[in-house]
User: What shape does this take?
Amino acid sequence: MEKLGIEPSLLLAQIVNFSIIVLVLAKLLYKPVLSMLEKRRRQIEEGLALTRVLREEEEKLKEKKQKLLDESRREGQAMIEEARKQIKEEEKDVLAAAHQEAERIIEKGREEVVRVRAGMEKDLQRSAVELAELMTKRLLTSVLTSEDKHKVVAKHLRDLETMKHINK
Assistant: This one.
């Protein structure tokens, strides 16, 4: 080895020095650096796991939010439809009440017409009877004897009474 220019004692000293430096560095720097790197790796893994959990939670919350929105929309539509149905029913009720009121007014008008007509018929009949009596009296006074007059008047009065009872 001396021919190569290497002294064995120096080589041995260099090996011992290198081994000491490696041991010292391993004890002082390598293990702390490795433990720090391991700690950092665990922190990164924990951060990634936490990120995954948070993303899953975020997805669940998004789904829950969407379900709530959909449910709210359905409930809103149901409420709108219910309100429309109620409005239609109330409209039908109002129209039915208006029709009933109109029918009642029409019926009342008909009854009034019938009542007025009956009154007019009675007045007309009374006037006709009075006119007939007057005409009969005038006619009888000029043509018939007093006995004939009494018979004719009595007969006409009986006829008129019969007509009055029939028309009532």
